[in-house]
Automatic annotation (TrEMBL):
It comes from the Bacteria. Residues 29-162 form the Hemerythrin-like domain. InterPro entries: Hemerythrin-like. This is Hemerythrin-like domain-containing protein. CDD domains: Hr-like.
Amino acid sequence: MATTSPTWPRQLRLPGQVAAPDGPIDMQMMYVMHHAFRRDLDLFVAAVRTTPVGERATWGLLAHRWELFAEVLHEHHTVEDVGIWPALERLGTPEDATVLAAMEAEHDEIDPLLEGCGTGFQRLAHGTARRSVEDTRAALAVRVSAARESLRRHLAHEETEAIAIIQRLLTVADFARIEQEAGPDLGLAKVARIVPWAAYGVPREALDRIFAQPGGRGTRMIWRCTRRRFARVHARTFRYV
């Protein structure tokens, strides 16, 4: 039976999250990103169905939000593919390697779906003939729903099995080093885009816990400066949901 060390952090649990394996590494930021991915795909599925095809300004906002979503998801997967999974493959068992190979295959399944969705949002934002626009919306609805289902399965698989391997094989220092080496360069402008997006809809008690961590004071300041504008744009983007 697995045991919990009194020195291990209490893992964050957010709406929609499937599991939070115990271990030495505090995976809170991983779970915040997963929450944002699930939240946005639910909203995109609803918005594609309910936004009038003639509302080009709203489709433009949806296309812009999709770009942010897809960019962050791509970078999130890159850190895993380039840094985390290879490190675990070197340390783990053949059974671990099977799980990690599935993680990579699931990323490969998701990527073309994201690209197709991005193309669909751009076409609706720019508009064409009425029939063509209706066909584009119908195709986009299928692609966005497929992306949501694929990513849901992947996140559930990652939270139950892959993160358990991370907790078993990596130290806190290992994980921090991998994130630093494989992670994207984040300038202030990019951080100011990502922080309010990632924090939106996260329960306040969870945000307070994140802000209390080392380095969290700066994140809190960025959130306070950007959250209201983000909320206004978010409301316009998903006004028909």
